[in-house]
Amino acid sequence: MRRTWYSELAQFLWIGIVVGLLGALAGHLTLALLVYTLVYLGWYFNNLRRLERWLRLGRKFAPPDARGLWGEVFNGIYRLQQRNRKRRKRLVKLLNRFRETTGAMPDGIIILQPNGGIEWWNEAAERLLRLKYPQDVCQHLNNLIRHPDFVAFINGETDAEDVTIPSPYDAQQLLNIRMIPYGKRQQLVLVRDVTLMERVEQMRRDFVANISHELRTPLTVLSGYIENLQNGEHSRETVQRALAVMAQQSRRMQHLTEDLMLLSNLENRREQRREKVNVAQMLDSLLEEARLVSGERAHVIDLAVDDGLEVLGDPRELDSIFSNLVINAVNYTPAGGEIHIRWHRDEDGGAVFEVTDTGLGIPAHHLPRLTERFYRVDVARSRETGGSGLGLAIVKHALQRLGGRLEIESEVGRGSTFRARFPAEVVVQAPAPEGADELERTA
Ligand code: ADP
Q1: Of 5, 164, 329, 356, which one has the fewest beta carbons inside 10 Å?
Q2: Which of 58-62, 248-252, 339-343 is predicted least confidently?
């Protein structure tokens, strides 16, 4: 550039000198120099005009053709433009990638201006807080979220780093909001949907409270009797009665811990034992057990089984499914009621275990929650029967592990039907004994 500049100057002077000499020879030195200066100025302004025109219109065109210093100026500007264009392209790409990344994030991000007005937000924030563009730009968050805990939080009235509040648009949804200061008095707001986490946490708290509660009652009874027996003399009869109650209470605790272990195994164990289980045989002994539990209440219990229908699964888990449903039917059906147990193929090639009773029935609003751990319709009655409140939770989990499901139909005062459905993959049809593919046993 420097060289071009010198050669341009040299060229101007040389031509000037030559024109001056020629002018002097012709006797018109001043006129020759004036004309030369005017021509040079004309050429100079013409190039200036081309530059201005190119800058105005020709961003996309190549620079005008010029030699010498002007050519260098044009090319220099052109190169600068190209470099800027590349840089801009890179910035746009970066911005797009940033937008895509923040758009894919499940958490809401909001950028606040130093005065607290909203400057920018991502798609998740738009979804969670129903922000609208452009109406909500420059809005203050406490105009959109008026929950007192949030207002106290955003006004700095609490020391907490974050706040959890119900969504202003859906009371069932819980939002956790955190503010992070950055840059020059700017704030980043993170909004997370913590509904599920809070629900799990609540379930954990309920679970611990329920277990403590379940254990406290039998323990109180046991320690009461022990204290009583330790103090003073007691007749043999009193001691026997106390021991019977103590045995019953310890059985209850044992039952509870066994069910808890089974449930936790069902939830934690990945590998599942899969062996061919002869369901008909299992149900035969279950029928005996049901009769024993029924005792003097003399229920009518009948069993209809497809003898050749077997299941690939863990025998203990299958036994839990069948016995929980049958013993529940006995426990929640008044004396003399009927209980029908059926085991047969279903229309999809799977199998169904069905227990129908003519018992108390269950109000419809309890049905969706029946398989929750410790959920009981009638707490007193469940305790009376020694139920742990975990039976149906075990049934549901054990069935889920086999790819099956539990269906419940019930009507208060008329009775209930519990149906455990097993998918075709775990059902095996063994060759049926001659002359009998469905056997009926009635008690
Ligand atoms: P529990 O140990 O209390 O029987 P379950 O999980 O087996 O616990 O059952 C949960 C609740 O469902 C029971 O407390 C009872 O209120 C109700 N229930 C279960 N089976 C029946 C049934 N066959 N008829 C009426 N209510 C039932």
Answers
A1: 5
A2: 58-62
